[in-house]
Amino acid sequence: MFGEELAKLREKSGMKQYLLAQALQYGASYVSKWISGASLPSEKTAVEVTARIGAFIAENAADAAVESICREWDVHGREEFARAASAALLEAYGDSVGTRKPVRQSGDVSFVVNPTGERVLCTTSRKR
Questions:
Q1: Which of 106, 116, 119 is nearest to 50 (CA)?
Q2: Cβ atoms of residues 34 and 46 within 8 Å
Q3: What whole-number distance in Å separates Cα of residue 37 and Cα of residue 126?
């Protein structure tokens, strides 16, 4: 889930939550709600927010923290780290949206629309 992934990334990087909130220009309580799972960034801003989180942490985390995460994820350098962090957060966001509620319905089929606009089959139902 998005909040869990964000919490892990923030903790591993040693990044303070309030600094992340400031960099994203969100209130610290809003970012706290993302981490706790109480809310999520809007679907309209999810791609941008996850990219900004990845870039901010890659640019500002201590060298040792970035090197450790890079080894764990098998990526090299801060730029690759930023892309990998953004991708991991975006995937977790999609998982979180998918478990909350279908956002589109078409007949007997429910879809979740992920942040990239792709429709993902959620459920089907048949009348008996």
A1: 116
A2: no
A3: 32
Q: What is the pLDDT of residues 49-69, one digit of tens each?
A: 999 999 999 999 999 999 999
At 112, the pLDDT band (50, 70, 90 cuts) reads low
**How many CB atoms are located within 10 Å of the residue 11 CB?**
12
Cβ(93)–Cβ(50) below 8 Å: yes
95 within 8 A of 53, measured Cβ to Cβ: no
Non-local (6+) Cβ contacts of 83 within 8 A are: 54, 75
Instruction: Name the residue type at position 97.
Output: V
Among 112, 94, 9, 95, residue whose Cα is nearest residue 52: 9
Pair of tokens at residue 108: 């007997």
Token output for 16? 């303070």
Intra-chain end-to-end CA distance of the chain, in Å: 35
Find out whether 3 and 31 touch, Cβ atoms under 8 Å: no
Query: From edge to edge, which strands make up the β-sheet containing 104-106?
Result: 104-106, 109-113, 119-124
Query: Is the alpha carbon torsion for 114, 117, 119, 120 positive or negative?
Result: negative
